[in-house]
Amino acid sequence: MEDKELADLRNSVRTIDKELAALFEKRLALSRSIAQCKIKAEIPVFDGKREEKNIEEVSRLIEDMSARPDFVRWYQMLMDISKKVQKKNDRRAAGHRKENHIFQR
Question: I need a labelling partner for 83 at 20 to 30 A (CA). Which of 9, 27, 48, 62 fits?
Answer without folding.
Answer: 62
